[in-house]
Design goal:
Two copies of one chain form a homodimer.
Chain A (H helix, E strand, L loop, with lengths): L12 H23 L5 E7 L5 H11 L5 E5 L5 H4 L5 H5 L7 E5 L4 H8 L5 H20 L3 E8 L2 H13 L9 H8 L1 H15 L6 E5 L3 H33 L11 H4 L16 H24 L4 E7 L5 H9 L7 E5 L5 H4 L5 H4 L8 E5 L8 H4 L5 H20 L3 E8 L2 H13 L9 H8 L1 H15 L6 E5 L3 H23 L1
Parallel strand pairs in A: 1-3, 1-4, 2-3, 4-5, 6-8, 6-9, 7-8, 9-10
InterPro entries (chains A, B): P-loop_NTPase, PolyP_AMP_Tfrase, PPK2-related
Organism (chains A, B): Magnetospirillum sulfuroxidans
Protein name (chains A, B): Polyphosphate:AMP phosphotransferase
Chain lengths: 504, 504
């Protein structure tokens, strides 16, 4: 794999100076075109120490328009980062559409170095690489251009390079004992790197292996590959936009579900909606569960266990009221309620999961999503805000996201608050009558109501595809608010109890 | 996940009879349109025993035009199948473009049942599912429509169903002790199934979970989903064809590589082409290696170790002559030379790897590919016979293919026979002078020669991306035929020796 990057390729200063101005102009022009584009560029530098990862990133930073470029390098996770799932920091740093993001010591660094130092087995590394593949695939599916450069040096060239850096007083600080320690592990490093590249070089995220010994050569190669990649991605996305338009033409409308299937029971219609709780019993149970929640949360906080609660449900199903009953039992500094409405401009310039990743909280906190990432497979599906392919692949992306939350030791509960159409109508009418509640009722609520059937189909599919043992849905019969509130509280308490037990 | 498929959904006979004729006509019409399409349809039935997998496949077979439909079900591998990598039989059975293939007890059956019976761990099952994901992804990338139905029954419904089948003398034979044994393992089965679905439900190959208790309901759902899937895939492919055309427009041509990069040494130009072997030494070494090969092959055959040899190289580099020196040492019944020219009509209707999978031989045999799957990243790349995306993702697909060959215990060697452009010219001229060799020289050879630089770039990238520890490339300095032949023979012998040792 690396033989082809140990050939002693060189570009002279004269040669470089001859092509540099054109390359630079072309890159700036591409960057200008990028600003209008509907995708980000993600550049990853990996490879052997001393092969020029940093220098190349520096030069790119110098050449490109800095307003549209971000560079990120990672060390061991900070306290802040360690309290979230490992990919949190990478999600946070993703460049928005139109920008170029450069990543040094990226998501590949950990699995690779842990394998080199034998802290993890080959199978463990593979598992980690699968997660990386899913991450990059999800970004690429969303349109991102991912360009990965693996900078290579032969063992001899690496030694020579480290020596040279050491001998120059201006660069000697760059060479540490660790670098020499790594150099002695060269064979292990290259062996692990080969596996890493094999497992993660995909059509949509190819590793380009670059001979790193000569600075001008490697720079020319990287700049040229980058130019080509951006150029052809721009062309491709433009063509894809035409496809999307094509597929939206009226004659491409989907046929309606046959009546006999449309009228079938759904997971929602099978709920026993008569369940209720009378006033005294409600108060007793509410107090009991709130006391329990308060105590359990303190325990969880002590242990650094975070809680993520997801609330979905029909308009007027009582999400807000239920959330308030819950938060009342908590200390204001310990929870965040995240109301999810239409995404902001900043959020629209990112992958749809980005705005949820960013809200994952520090250890011991409770994050409550009032509507959530499930919007992708509910409202966005029903309203046609995203393509069929986009919401279909979202199930897998969501399962992967939630798996990472649970693997990080967080407690995750997902609630669908269900009311019948009749109950909804009654509540709408009540809202329109009570002055201080009128603001809660919008034209959109009435419009959504007309699409009850389509939403029900979507909810059914959502439960089918995303209710799993590690992250089950709790369907809440919410025609009676009291019953719903107690059921939610009890479910959260049970989950916290189980989560605390598991941590022991 | 399965709660939504235990709702007791039913379609009455009257309801079914009312929609059946239309559905049937629509499906036949779609099948007619499919015949002209550039993709196959792959339907997979999985799920709980008794949930109607077979019945649904039967009905589809009845309704569809049998000339354009194939159905495959798998039991434990036959002797023939066990001697090849596990996916060999699935590749062999893939439907060509324009046809529908239905798969029962498909590639999912093994990993699932082995997990249910605790023969493999969860991690092992995951590994197997990754291979499945790669397989399906590769087919989908090639255009295939993959529709997966998971037929579900609750534990109670399964019992009822098995009882009912048993009670009817006409269907009693369908229920075996094994079915009841499986029923007792219901929870294990459903647990493993959930993981399987979570890991393999992808945007391009979504699992549809179907409630299987009522025959007319499940049939209606499957037929309707199938209809929708084919319909929207036809639309999508049509739009994609337009994109491909768009991307091929003259203004979308790729810029040429800057001279300063084009003239860099490649992995080929770094070879020492002066290596030679004089006549006596050649004869001695040739005899020695042939004797060695003959003995080693007999040992390998005894142990059931197959050998796969890949020959690539420049026109007139001496592939044919080298192969003959090799096969002379073998028994005619033990080897096959597969000359790879332009694909046949049958082969063109399949994934490009299909025609190589089919040639993998029985245990102990030697299969020699005179040109190979590397055509995808060489001639097809250089001549623009496939899209950039197609050859870029081919590296990963090829690595995966070769990994399966090696994992099956086969010995794999890959040779690039290299000659210099000057030597090629001399050989071309010699060929055109010797009458009985003139047929070997075509206009295409001269045309290829003009693209030497582009081919060299492609060879370099090929070695970079596909020369790995498990399947390394051997670059052969072939300006002197004698030297090349002995080097190839020795490499094959060394590999066989290592392979035999590993098997012990």
């Amino acid at each position: 794999m690396f033989e082809a990057a140990e050939l002693g390729r060189k570009v002279t200063r004269e040669e470089f100076d001859a092509i540099a101005p054109t390359l630079r102009t072309e890159l700036l022009e591409l960057q200008r075109r990028l600003r209008e584009a509907d995708f980000p560029v993600i550049i990853i530098f990996g490879g052997v120490d001393g092969a020029g990862k940093n220098e190349t990133a520096n030069l790119l930073n110098e050449w490109l328009d800095p307003r549209w470029t971000v560079t990120r390098a990672y060390a061991g996770p900070s306290e802040d980062e360690a309290e979230r799932p490992p990919f949190w920091r990478y999600w946070r740093d993703l460049p928005p559409k139109g920008k170029i993001g450069m990543f040094l010591s990226s998501w590949y660094h950990g699995p690779l170095m842990e394998r080199v130092h034998d802290h993890i087995s080959v199978a463990d590394m593979d598992e980690r690489l699968i997660r990386i593949n899913r991450f990059e695939k999800s970004l690429a599916d969303d349109g991102a251009l991912i360009v990965k450069f693996w900078m290579h040096l032969s063992e001899k060239a690496q030694k020579k390079r480290l020596k040279k850096l050491e001998d120059d007083p201006l660069t000697a600080w760059q060479v540490t004992d660790l670098d020499w320690k790594h150099w002695k592990m060269y064979d292990r490093f290259v062996g692990a790197a080969e596996r890493l590249i094999m497992q993660t070089s995909k059509g949509h995220a190819l590793w380009h292996i670059v001979e790193g010994a000569d600075a001008r050569y490697r720079t020319s190669v990287v700049l040229n590959l980058l130019k080509e990649a951006i150029n052809s991605h721009l062309q491709r996305r433009e063509a894809m936009t035409k496809v999307a338009a094509e597929l939206k033409k009226p004659n491409n409308q989907k046929p309606a579900l046959p009546d006999v299937l449309a009228k079938q029971p759904s997971i929602l219609s099978s709920l026993d909606m008569t369940q209720a709780l009378d006033g005294d019993e409600y108060n007793r149970q509410l107090q009991e569960q709130r006391g329990r929640l308060s105590a359990l949360h303190r325990k969880a906080k002590d242990k650094g266990i975070s809680t993520v609660l997801v609330f979905e449900g029909w308009d007027a199903a009582g999400k807000g009221g239920t959330i308030r009953r819950l938060t009342n039992a908590l200390n204001a500094r310990d929870y965040q309620v995240i109301p999810i409405a239409a995404p902001t401009e900043e959020e629209r310039a990112q992958h749809y999961l980005w705005r949820f990743w960013r809200h994952l909280s520090r250890a011991g906190r409770v994050t409550i999503f009032d509507r959530s990432w499930y919007g992708r497979v509910l409202v966005e599906r029903v309203e046609g805000f995203c393509s069929d392919e986009a919401w279909q692949r979202a199930y897998g992306e969501i399962n992967d996201f939630e798996e990472q939350i649970v693997e990080a030791g967080h407690v995750l509960c997902k609630f669908w608050l269900h009311i019948t159409p009749e109950e909804q109508l009654a509540r709408f009418e009540q809202r329109s009558e009570i002055e201080y509640k009128q603001w809660k009722l919008t034209d959109e609520d009435w419009r959504n109501r007309e699409k009850w059937g389509a939403y029900e189909t979507a909810v059914n599919a959502m439960v089918e595809q995303t209710s799993t043992h590690i992250a089950p849905w709790t369907l809440v019969e919410a025609n009676t608010k009291t019953f719903a509130r107690v059921k939610v509280l009890r479910t959260v308490c049970d989950a916290l109890e189980a989560g605390i037990k598991k941590r022991k």
